[in-house]
TrEMBL record:
Keyword field contains Cell wall biogenesis/degradation: no
Segments traversing the membrane: 39-59, 216-249, 261-282, 303-326, 338-361, 398-420, 561-578, 585-606, 626-650, 671-695, 701-720
Cellular compartments annotated: Cell membrane
InterPro entries: MMPL_dom, Mycobact_MmpL, SSD
Record protein name field: MMPL family transporter
Species in which this protein is naturally found: Saccharothrix xinjiangensis
Keywords linked to the UniProt accession: Cell membrane, Membrane, Transmembrane, Transmembrane helix
Top-rank taxon: Bacteria
SSD domain span: 235-360
Membrane topology of this protein: Multi-pass membrane protein
Length: 762
């Protein structure tokens, strides 16, 4: 049980007078209503979750289609207008397992395997169509440049509802042939094979993130609170909030595209934020109970302080995330909607359901204490380690602040040579995935064949594109293929209603500079010199390589806009929250230092291939093109949790003592334990990404985990107190030309001692 003492006037100690800001704030009124109507508040939350869950189950219909940027989006739009079915194309590599064998034309077993495979595919009852053989008279383009490998190509028959069954029948035929020739490599890769592998990995990773994140969070919360009941409250609130989020996304996904690949990210951000908000609230409630206030008074003060911080932090996170909308990319649009929704629900639960649950439980919130932890963890004491560090920093701020800033700058140095490059499927997933290994081997023998670029061709008057003039231009394009050129054999042609789809293998790994140069040559030279000379014809280039290229171009174009929006927004929000000019400017600089250092660590590890065995990846010489932008937006939002929480404590102490340096020490010391616990939880949650399969998840996990660690330790524990100590009272002043900003009254100091005064709202 939390020890208490009697108080008067609803929990305010005698002689305190009215608290600063006697006008009851909105958050406090909401929390007060929830406490008085605790059954309605808890029941209403559960009803919201139930309605969201039922809506996700009941609402039916097709999910919204993702629209890609640039030329890729044009090609997709044209295909969406066609009545026909764009067939899925697969290729099967046939080669000797041992290198240096006989040429395909001279090896009877290789030719026999190819013929048997063709017969097996033709015997699938129409599941595989358009089968091409390297032994056929027109199959010369299906033999590799060195003559030692061959391809058998085919299309998976439609319609769409039969694709899954037809694909399985084709795979079974390939597998059966491979088993009959154990000394040969019969390896399938293509549109469906790689997509299926990626989808399965995403599904497995999502399940793994579920299994890893929640137990880790629960263990940490038990260590923090020392009580199973107290630890279970944040977990239950977070679980219900996440359930409601994903249920609502099932409905929203009918209108706004929600990429399944972002589900893990939405889940882990929801867990991190939801648990952190509950932690801020519960720890403050304990402190107020230990200060002698009864339950109702403690909840009022908690709502006025930590509840207000949670709302400001939640709104800041959500508004910062909206900066991603400036990219006008569907992938980021869905991610923004999902994360804003999960953060918003976590914020609402923390200021409504949480105080109701605490009021309902009372002192039972500390029941089921863990042996050896329970009694010590019920109290909320200051951190001795951080107290010692902060006091040294405040005494010599220039030395400590300068040293910490220099350390972050050194960590950020690798960013100067960062090479932003998205990972192709063969770079993203390990070669232990069969489809990836097959694609890598096929890529070596037939560059671009596993994931060829698609060229969509149509006539501007809407008539069929399969005219003699267009087919002649396609033949001319085929003549431009070369082993050392931009495009390669085999070029496949498929008619989709009134349009044509050309599958053109290009040089490179799929996302590297060689690929980009080949794609630019295809778009700016080869196609204009062939199809571009046919009157009344238009075309657009799509496919995996083109999609990534156009995506990267859009990010490069819009990144300055996103950065500017988030920086301006953070500045305005902090000016309004603290009525200060120095605090927003210092906060922005410190955040940029932490982000730069985190990106530097990611660059050093993944671009330069350091610690590959430790984290289980193979470097492809780059960093995901969207990662710095994403870390910037997410960290700027999430770091406000710690920042606003710490500064609110500092301001409370400053309002009662009038001594800036003493307030800095006391405020950071009293909040260090909560911030450390919250940072450990958030770091552990993001570290789950490191255990996932795809390299982009590993990069994101390390980047965000390092950023959170630096933000909660070096930035908030050293740089922030150093900067505020150097600024002194000037940190809390607002120039006259900015006093038109909305917000609370300007900071006042008072000589009244801390224990006899309720904390003021920030």
């Amino acid at each position: 049980m939390v020890p208490t003492s009697k108080s008067v006037d609803g929990g305010r100690p005698p002689g305190a007078g009215k608290p600063v800001g006697a006008r009851i704030a909105l958050v406090e009124r909401i929390a007060g209503w929830s406490v008085r109507h605790r059954g309605v508040a808890i029941g209403g939350w559960l009803a919201l979750v139930a309605v969201a869950f039922l809506a996700g189950m009941v609402v039916e219909g097709p999910d919204a289609r993702t629209s890609d940027p640039g030329d890729t989006g044009r090609a997709q739009a044209v295909l969406n207008e066609q009545e026909g079915f764009d067939p899925i194309r697969e290729s099967v590599l046939v080669q000797a397992r041992e290198p240096g064998g006989a040429a395909f034309a001279d090896d009877p077993e290789l030719r026999r395997a190819a013929d048997d495979l063709v017969a097996a595919l033709n015997g699938t009852g129409g599941a595989a169509i358009g089968v091409r053989s390297p032994t056929a008279p027109d199959g010369a383009d299906l033999i590799s440049a060195d003559g030692r490998s061959a391809l058998v190509t085919f299309e998976v028959a439609g319609p769409a509802e039969r694709v899954r069954a037809n694909f399985k029948a084709a795979v079974d035929a390939v597998d059966a042939t491979a088993q009959r020739y154990p000394d040969l490599r019969v390896a399938q890769a293509g549109d469906r094979s790689l997509t299926t592998a990626v989808d399965q990995i995403v599904k497995d990773d999502l399940n793994r993130s579920h299994l890893l994140s929640l137990p880790i969070v629960l263990i940490i919360l038990v260590l923090v609170f020392g009580s199973l009941v107290a630890a279970s409250i944040p977990v239950l609130l977070t679980l219900t909030g996440v359930l409601a989020t994903f249920s609502l996304l099932q409905v929203i996904g009918k209108v706004i595209p929600i990429n399944s690949a972002v589900s893990s990210l939405i889940l882990l951000i929801g867990i991190a934020v939801g648990v952190d908000y509950s932690l801020f609230y519960l720890r403050r409630y304990r402190e107020e109970r230990l200060a002698g206030r009864d339950g109702d008074a403690a909840l009022r003060v908690t709502a006025r302080t930590s509840g207000h911080v949670v709302v400001v932090s939640g709104l800041t996170v959500m508004l910062c995330l909206t900066g991603l909308l400036f990219t006008e990319l569907d992938a980021f649009r869905g991610l923004t909607v999902g994360t804003v929704l999960v953060v918003g629900l976590a914020m609402i639960a923390s200021v409504t359901v949480l105080p109701a649950a605490v009021a309902l439980l009372g002192d039972r919130v500390d029941k089921l204490r863990v042996p050896l932890l329970g009694r010590g963890r019920v109290t909320a004491s200051e951190s001795r380690i951080w107290s010692a560090i902060v006091r040294r920093v405040v005494r010599r701020p220039a030395l400590w602040g300068g040293g910490a800033a220099l350390a972050l700058v050194v960590m950020a140095l690798p960013v100067l040579n960062i090479h932003l490059q998205d990972a192709a499927v063969v770079n993203s997933l390990p070669r232990s995935v069969v489809a990836v290994d097959n694609a890598v081997r096929m890529q070596e023998a037939f560059p671009g064949a596993p994931t060829p670029t698609r060229v969509v061709v149509w006539r501007e008057d809407g008539s069929a594109a399969s005219t003699p003039e267009i087919m002649a231009a396609v033949d001319e394009l085929r003549d431009r293929t070369a082993a050392d050129g931009a495009i390669h054999d085999p070029i496949a042609v498929a008619q989709v209603d009134r349009a044509l789809v050309l599958r053109v293998p290009i040089s490179g790994s799929g996302t590297d500079e060689t690929t980009n140069r080949a794609l630019e040559e295809l778009r700016t030279q080869l196609l204009p010199e062939t199809l571009g000379r046919v009157d009344g014809v238009d075309y657009a280039v799509s496919g995996k390589s083109a999609q990534i290229y156009d995506f990267t171009q859009r990010i490069s174009e819009r990144t300055p806009l996103v950065f500017g929006f988030v920086l301006l927004l953070a500045f305005v929000l902090l000016v309004v929250a603290f009525r200060s000019l120095a605090i927003p400017l210092v906060s922005i600089v410190l955040n940029l230092l932490a982000i730069g250092a985190a990106c530097g660590v990611v660059t050093w590890i993944f671009q330069y291939g350091n610690l590959e065995p430790v984290f289980g990846f193979t470097s492809y010489g780059g960093v995901m093109d969207w990662l710095p932008l994403f870390i910037f937006v997410i960290l700027f939002g999430l770091s406000m949790d710690y920042h606003i929480f710490i500064l609110s404590r500092v301001r409370e102490r400053l309002a009662t003592t009038g001594n800036a340096r003493a307030a800095i020490s006391a405020g950071i010391e009293s909040s260090a334990g909560v911030v450390t616990s919250a940072a450990v939880i958030m770091t552990a949650v993001f570290a789950v990404f490191i255990a996932l399969t795809a390299i982009e998840n590993k990069q994101l996990g390390i980047g965000m985990a390092v950023a959170v660690i630096l933000d909660a330790t070096v930035v908030r524990g050293v740089l922030l107190p150093a900067a505020m100590s150097l600024l002194g009272e000037r940190a809390w002043t607002l120039p006259g030309w900015l006093r038109w900003f909305p917000g609370g009254e300007r900071h006042r100091t008072s000589p009244v001692s801390g224990p006899s005064r309720e904390p003021a709202q920030v």
